[in-house]
Amino acid sequence: MSFFEELKRRNVFRVAIGYAITAWLLLQFVDLVLENVNAPDWVMQVFMLGLAIGFPLAIFFAWAFEMTPDGVKRESEVDRSISITRATGRKMDRNIIIAMALALAYFAYDKFSGQEPDSPAETAEPRTETAAETPAPTMSQASKSDEKSIAVLPLVNRSIQAEDAFFAEGLHDELLTQLSRISALRVISRTSVMGYAGTTKRIPDIARELGVKTLLEGGVQRSGNRVRINVQLIDAATDEHLWAEVYDRELTADNLFDIQSDITQAIANALQAVLTGEEQQNLEQKPTENFEAYAYYLRGKAESKGYGRRIEDIDRTIESFQTAIDLDPQFAAAYASIAIDWTEKFWASNKLGDELQHALKALQRAQELAPESPETLTAEGYYHYWGHLDYAQAISAFDRALENEPGNYLALRGKAYALRRLGDFEESIATMEKVISIDPLDPDMPADLGYTLMRKGQVERATVMMNRSVTLAAEKPWSRFTRAELFLMQGSLEQAAQTTRSTTVGFARGQGYYLDIMLMIARAQADAERVDKILSSYESADSQSLGPKISQALVYLDRGEQDKLNALISDMEEDIQTSKREQPGKEATLLGLVSFYGLKQDRARLAEAVEAYYAAVNPDALRIVENRTIPTAYAIAGDFDALLDYLDRMVEQFGPWEFYYFALDPSFDEMRDLPRFQALDKQYRQWLEQIQ
Asked: Domain check: are 383 and 331 in the same one?
């Protein structure tokens, strides 16, 4: 037998062909995945190297070894009279044909579909017909239906001084603000575009990812008392310049405002976006005559890292805005910005200090100077939202801000949250979709939208949004834990457990929620080892002081360790009195009282604590499902009538899907035989059958 025939007999040619086709398919898949997670180029290079090394190894294996009914053996050890290489070859032929069909199908799709297969907007989640699920159009869509869309890439700091980076970033933010005031334009927010700072990606690729038709790029150079700004507007479809300009001026506030106005007007003209008289007037307004004050204001804008900042980040921006105010006491936009910062700090610090008084003082000054400016109205909205939980007033202020600045990202976001708190879920969802359309790469809003859709029982749409959020920021616990709750809602306890186990929770402000979810899952699974591990983590979390003890009490109840429970309740007494004395109106204190009286099985005081809690907070459509402390306390106290009344209201408002928590949590085991509880559980099970 010739060498060639021997190669055929040992299926070497088949292995080579099969390996090549399979490697090509794997390359397409891996390239798609790596593109969506923004993996560095070297990852793909390493993968390709692995495939290249694997090819000769596969050929060697095919030559030296043979499949037999008894497993893999060396070819020299196989009796040719009983060899099954022909049968193996026929099986390989079938597999090769299937692989070739898949390869041809993918090639045809890539060649003729008219869409890029590796577009994040198309691969992060399945295509559907709703706006919520396709917030970022592909370039083919953008070119047909969204002619007046633009993304302003971060301006490159070309100055020698690194300090001037703040100046460039702030100027970029202000330019975005100016463009956002043109109703005919859709402008991508700062959060999404900042990810492209220093990028080497091609303009068409960036535009496709952001779902826009045009991009603006440029740079800023400060030198002494002069500034040089160059910008160019680019058609993403052709990668051609629509307009370009270089501004070389003396560094004054007036000149900077004139440059911003000129750039905005030029973009509007190039995109044939007609400005209203009011929009034209807004472009010509100058917020301050003091350049130094404006420079500190720009620094504050540059240091603002978006929604949900750390307290130390807020303190830095407060300092910058305060310096701007000190330099120009008539600077309305600086007052508005510092009012937002003080209000956010009030919220972030659990409403314990005098931050709200500082916020009100700054807001009142902004209202005196510029009562109808978008900045002032946005600050007013957050003052009502964060400061007083007055959601109706917040929405009113946000709407007025959006009249003058339709693309105001902060106002849209605040409005979406306030609408949700008032129970207007449909309008909240629609507003969240608008936010995503102008900030397609922000992972938080898809998670929030998914959370809202989940609360309405819209599992399929919620899944799309949560998958999108995880794709954009796999490291963020909020994205993963909301998805874990979605798994719980669908009765998938093990999937929820796997999702939480794969997430590293940093013990910062507000992270007690994650531990609560993890603990409930571990208790439902009766995983004693994991329960103890999670309990130890509470000590590191910045949660309410009673939080770890309440969680420990639930575990003692599960395990029937009454002596330990009684000792813990006695130990909690002092903490309760301290909280009542030092933080009487704090929400955590009021909920701590609810838990405490539930553990003591003091139904009368429990009822008073629940009433006090609801009297202290404004009506909130989410509190009934976000706050599981109250029904848990009812269950522990044995007040089943009050508990079932609570659950009836919850199911009436939101539907049976919200019953999942109570169907799983061991705290509710004692009442599972009650007819009313079983009726609610039956509704939940029927809903599960419908969605599965």
From this structure: yes
